[in-house]
Amino acid sequence: MRLRYAGKSGKRRPLIKKMPPLNAVRAFEVAARHVSFTKAAAELNVTHGAVSRQVALLEEWLGVALFHRAPSQLTLTEAGRGYLIEVSAALDRLVAASIHVTKQASPVVLRANAPPTFTMRWLIPRLSAFQRRYPDVEVRLTTSVDPLNFQENTYDIAIRGQHGPLSHFKSVPFMTEIIAPICHVDLQETMHLIHPRDLEAHTLISYATEPYSWSEWLGATGVPDLKPANMLRFEQMYFALQAASEGLGLAMVPLFLAIDDIISGRLCVPFGPLGIKRRTYYANSTAPLRAASPASEFCKWLQKEGRDTERSITAWAADRDWVL
Fold first, then answer.
1. I need a surface site. Which of 2, 39, 230, 277 has the fewest CB within 10 A?
2. Cross-strand partners of 176
3. Closest-CA residue to 179 (of 161, 165, 198)
4. 176 and 152 in contact (C-beta within 8 Å)?
5. Is 55:27 a contact under the CB 8 Å cutoff?
6. Are residues 84 and 152 in the same domain?
7. CATH code: domain of residue 73
8. Is-contact 55 66, C-beta < 8 A?
């Protein structure tokens, strides 16, 4: 843009085009569109007198009448009709430009990291509820079971199963993890799994990231020296859970990851609450959560979803007179 300069003193001053009072322009556009000060006042949520004063201010600034005012009728002057065309187009362009800038603005991003199977089996199926409530927050998920390292990894919230809050972090508990053996119902019905000793004839499924090993469970249930017929090992919990779902053996997994299949009758917990182990799932961050921040709202949502899942497991156990 080229600027012209003038000034009697020799000082260079930019000659800036005069801008009309924008509130007055807006009042004129609405009044001219309705050809009524009363309807304009209703749309703008102001008084009739306020609209009239704004239009008079604009007419004084322009030095030309924009309306013919009669006791029972308001009409636009020729200058008013021409000015309305230009003003409407200018306001439309302003709206379009504002919408464009809004769409180009960077979204609010929340970066969350969680274990892979937890993410696939529990978090993702529920995430749409958070997105509907907070459509302006873009949740970016990554998966890991590694120890927390907020310096080297770019995430705001890290979800982990823990035995307690972590020092030097803000740890928000949101769900109790109950770990127990599960298997396909056909395996339970055909092989009559009643006591842990019955596992001598079965395949036990393990995985590299398991938080509760078969040896720990067997020791807790009084058969520490039991040797199963076979062991099937995987790297990730997800594959172990899938193998158990296909009837390949028994896997030691958190019940909340399998509760939907358990309630539907596809999977079962053959030994009930015997030898179960508890941990807690936490959402961890490096700093205190600011009220109403995306991270704070995400943690509140996790707590609500966690309570719902716990209630489902408790109700299912109560039907069997189990105390978990």
1. 2
2. 280
3. 161
4. no
5. yes
6. no
7. 1.10.10.10
8. yes
Among 113, 64, 111, smallest CA distance to 84 is for: 64
- Pair of tokens at residue 205: 């499924």
Interatomic CA distance for residues 185 and 182, integer angstroms: 9
The residue assigned the tokens 């009837």 is 247
The sign one gets for the Cα dihedral 119, 124, 129, 130 is positive
Predicted confidence pLDDT, tens digits, the chain (324 residues): 233 333 444 444 444 467 899 999 999 999 999 899 999 999 899 999 999 999 999 999 999 999 999 888 899 999 999 999 899 888 888 887 877 776 666 678 999 999 999 999 999 999 999 998 888 899 999 999 988 887 776 889 999 999 999 888 899 999 999 999 999 999 988 888 899 999 999 999 999 999 999 999 999 999 999 999 999 999 999 999 999 999 999 999 999 999 889 988 999 999 999 999 999 999 999 877 777 789 999 999 999 999 999 999 999 999 988 988
For residues 108-134, one letter each, b for 16 or more C-beta atoms within 10 angstroms of the residue's C-beta and e for the rest, the string is: eebbbbbbebbbbbbbeeebeebeeeb
Question: What gap in Å lies between CA 87 and CA 23, rounded to an integer?
Answer: 12
Structural domain of 130: 108-324
* Residues 308, 200 share a domain: yes
